Amino acid sequence: MHIYIHLGLLPVLQKAENTILVFEMGLGTGLNALLSWQLADQLQKKSLILPLKLFQFPKKKLHY
């Protein structure tokens, strides 16, 4: 999280005037998307998050 947020996203959000676009290759658990949204919200910026996941996790293997 430190590398992604503090060294990557935070400087971009601080320089952005209003809105940023975050492209995420492989959404995984969505944690980076959630952290991106939270940080943008704290800094009163808009964020558009575009996740791309080529292979979906089979629903049969999910244990709810």
Describe the structure.
The chain has 64 residues and is α+β, with helices and mostly antiparallel strands. The chain has one domain (2-61). The protein is 41% helix and 22% strand. A two-stranded parallel ribbon has the order 1-2. Strand 1 (19-25), helix 2 and strand 2 (46-52) form a beta-alpha-beta unit. The longest helix has 14 residues, at 2-15. It is elongated. It starts with a helix and ends in a 12-residue tail after the last strand.
What portion of residues belong to β-strands? 15-25%
Work out the number of β strands: 2
Mean pLDDT: 85
Overall radius of gyration: 14 Å
Give me the number of helical elements.
Answer: 2
Give the uncertain stretches in residue-range form: none
The tally of structural domains comes to 1
Helix content: 40-55%
The major β-sheet equals: 2 strands, parallel
The gross shape turns out to be elongated
What structural class do helix, strand and pairing data support? Answer: alpha+beta
Biggest sheet, strands in spatial order?
1-2
Put the structure in a nutshell.
About 40% of the residues lie in helices and about 20% in strands.
Topology (SSEs and partners):
Layout: H1 2-15, E1 19-25, H2 31-42, E2 46-52
Parallel strand pairs: 1-2
Helix pairs in contact: 1-2
